Amino acid sequence: MINKQIIEFHLESKKPFFEFLTLKDVSGSYLFTGPKGIGKKDFAFFVSTQILSNPHKIEKNIHPDFFCLSNENDKILVEDIDRIENWALHPPFESTKKIIIVPKAETINVVAQNKLLKILEEPPEYLFFFLLSPTPDLLLPTIRSRCINVNFQLLPVEFLLKSLEDKFLETELLDLSIFLLNGSINNIEFYSQDNLQEMVEFVSMILKRDPMDIDLVSNKIDEIIKKDFNQLFFVDLVIGVLSYALKLKHLNNFQQTSVFNTNLLRNIPSISIIELISKMTSFNSDLRWSNFNFRMGIEEILFDFILDTNLSELKAV
Description:
The chain is of the alpha/beta class. It has helices at residues 4-21, 40-52, 55-59, 78-88, 110-121, 141-145, 157-164, 171-181, 193-208, 214-226, 231-249, 254-257, 262-267, 270-289, 294-307; strands spanning 28-33, 66-68, 98-102, 127-133, 148-151. It has two domains: 4-151, P-loop containing nucleotide triphosphate hydrolases (Rossmann fold, 3-Layer(aba) Sandwich); 157-313, Zinc Finger, Delta Prime, domain 3 (Up-down Bundle), CATH 1.20.272. α5 links the parallel β3 and β4. It is elongated, with a radius of gyration of 23 Å.
């Protein structure tokens, strides 16, 4: 289903662009950019309902002139581009236009991107092509140059608060959720009082640096693996909560507002948190683009941090 509130928000800044797309003689290739979860796909679907004049069939993805590529494995291969090409070259069946939407366009491998380039260079006059990506720099420059780039704004805090208002009893955890979401609703179903409290407790356990907690940290990692929890999202959460802790540490009144133990934040050096964030960020990149072992990688980083005896000799910044 298309999120109508998100569409209303984006139309405030994109109305001229929307009106241009719905003109009779317009088509072409467009690259929608901006972080995950801010409504790029919703907007592409909404535009498609207006161009093809059949919202019901678009929302159910059954319109014969509408093609949205499914890439559940986060990989778009040459075979996928072959499907797109074969579909695109047949004239429209029910409308005067055809529309292709490719979410997560950054996951198209290089060989497939080169094949896609041929379609973008000489598209049929009836074809709309919408590539969606939070990281367009991962696309070849030649792909980007063939598309009109359209950047989407972050969603306002008021929108996020309305989506979360019934999920939290503590204002501090609600503030943490707004910080972690950072203007998007990506994985918003995860954000609740219990889940955020659990993440704070896990990160606090790491920052406490007590070797006796090693087994508890390992058990949490076991739990993530057994639940088949999205590992990239989990690492993102840990990085986000660490960043929030760093932010609170440098607030003058963090003792009164923190979801963390006051002494814990006071005693841990800022440089140590920054270094841990840096290592976790590099690890997340390894996970995303290679067959890196999740358990080995995250345990090595977290255990080294907890057991680093030199860290205790540093003065808190």
